[in-house]
Amino acid sequence: MKRFSVKALVSIGMLSSISYVLMLLNFPVPPFPQFLMIDFSDIPALIAALIFGPLAGILVELFKNILDYFMTGSATGVPVGHISNFIAGTLFVLPTYYVYQKLKTRKGMTFGLVAGSIIMAVVMSILNYFIILPAYTFFLNTPAMSAPEMRTMIVTGILPFNIVKGLIITIVFMLIFARMNAWINKQGTYNNVA
Length: 194
What we know:
- The chain is mainly α.
- It is built from six helices and two strands.
- It comes from Cytobacillus depressus.
């Protein structure tokens, strides 16, 4: 297992804090259900992964969700939403990181972000159908949706929402990446040697 330097640990902590604050600045997108909110908290996790490796990105995703759970709580009493946010963020960050490592260009980053968005949307749809939505109904003690109702919710709400969220994050991250590309690559090279 990779051991992080003090600089990396401090950076991961700082990026986790920034990610947590960005998670609080969430907003709904009108055509989708009100409980689906867009935020930009995956961007610091992606930066951490690009500089310090994939484990750093996963840690930022984990720490931001732990912070949010302890600070804001959960309607279900258990962190179902936080676990699903962690999984979604990880599913977005890891494919993006691995594609970019193969194609170290702006086009490669764009391709990685689109691939991460699609993988996140598809896998989260499957997880929502089999695990997440049933967990919400169980812990909230509400009547379970029928299989057709769940499929409709996923096909018309969750799947397109995650695609839109991924594309919005892609656009915002590419604007940031255009300015920070050289710095991120320099930091990543330095940390891989050090």
